[in-house]
Structures are given as structure tokens and as C-alpha cells.
Amino acid sequence: RFYQLRSKLPPGPNPWPIIGNILLFKRKDHWDVVLREVAKQYGPTFTFWLFNRPLVVVTDIETAREAFRKNDFAGRDMSYTARQFSNEKQSDIIFADYGHRWEALRRVAHSAVHKYSTNERLVSVATDSVDRTVKQMLEREGVGNGFDPKTYIYLMFLNILATSAFGISYDFEDREFKFIKYLLKDFPKQVGSRAFLWEFSSIIRFLDRKMVHKNDRLTKKFIDLIKNKFTKHYDDYNE
């Protein structure tokens, strides 16, 4: 039965008995690095085995667009991250299942994004953020000195999003900036590629429960932070 099932699926690395391909994700690299390396060997669409469960991975953008253009993915199980970031009714546009509610949310979101993206204020926000970032580079690094710009670029894009959504901005010493950077950038480096396995296996999450619990605490703190920002901004808007 296993070989019959495997013959109908895209190619992929040979799975070990019982554990499948989970040993691929014991590295410290981000899981995206692991998947891209596998894609180089087996093509943009391949099969990964989580224990005895096959998972088809699509790494090519055109193939992904074709797959999501239809409703074949409707009704699939929610992943670990999806359950964390969905609201109580799971009615957000990213993680909601396909249906009339999702179509209505998509129309509203598409209209809002299109309206804001064509607004001149976005250009002003982006320009101001770039100017501030360049000024900070000069003040902190000086002229003629080599440095890694990644943190500056990260701060710049975060400020564009924060200013657009809540009318606020951050600098390097802000506690909120340090927390967001740790959650979205530094903590994933500590976890490594095994975070990919959390998405699909409660067994893996149990075995790695110390880091999973830490991730849960950090994620809840981040969601509460966004909720508080939204509530405050919404109250100011009403006034």
C-alpha cells in the first residue's frame, strides 16, 4: 500500500521507516533553506514524509498560484501557526476556509489594500522611513565604515508597517522593536528548521514542548500587543 501511494505522489527524498523524513529538519538552518535544497534535487514540487503521512510541498510560485486558483485546498486541516493567529471564529482572510465569508472578506481586503496602495500617503510614509533609517546609519556607523545593514532594513520596513497601521514608529532602543525583532527574526534562528515539523505533528510539539511553550508565550504576547495597538488607534479614530 505504501508503494502504491508513493507512486501516485511527486518524487522526494526516500523516507526512513516509521519516522519518514523528519531528520532533514534537525539542522539549525531555517526550514525554508532545507526545503529549497530538497527542491533543487527533486524539483519544485516534491513529497515529504512526516512519519507515515505524505506532505506535498510546492516551492514554485507559478505552480502555487495554479494550485490555489482552484478550491482543491478547501477544508484542509488548520496548521499550528494558523490556529495561533486565527481569531476565535476563524474569520480572518488568511486562515479562513474557502466559502462565502472568505469571499466577502477577500473583496473588502482587496478594496482596502488597493485604496491604500494608490494613496500618496504611503509614498510619504515610505520616504520618511527611508530618510530616518539612512540618518540612523550615518549616526551609528559613521561614513566609510563597513557594517551589516540587515537590522536597519528590518527596522525600516517595520516602521513603514507600524506607521501605516497605527501611526507609530520605532528606533533601535524601543522595547517593542526589540521584542518584535526577537520573535520574528532571532527566535526562529534558535529553533532552527524543526519549527516546520511543529506545523503538522502534535507528537513533535510534545517532544519539543519546552520551545513550543516558549513560542506560544511569545506569540500570545505579540497578538496582545497588536490588539492593544489596534484598540488604541481605533479609539483615537472615533474621537
From TrEMBL:
Among its keywords, does the record have DNA damage? no
Q: Has keyword Cytoplasm?
A: no
Matching entries from Pfam families are given as: p450 (PF00067)
- What GO annotations for molecular function exist for this entry? heme binding; iron ion binding; monooxygenase activity; oxidoreductase activity, acting on paired donors, with incorporation or reduction of molecular oxygen
Q: Which Gene3D superfamilies match?
A: Cytochrome P450 (1.10.630.10)
Q: Which UniProt keywords apply?
A: Heme, Iron, Metal-binding, Monooxygenase, Oxidoreductase
Q: What is the similarity comment for this entry?
A: Belongs to the cytochrome P450 family.
Entry protein name: Cytochrome P450
Q: What is the species listed in this Swiss-Prot or TrEMBL entry?
A: Medioppia subpectinata
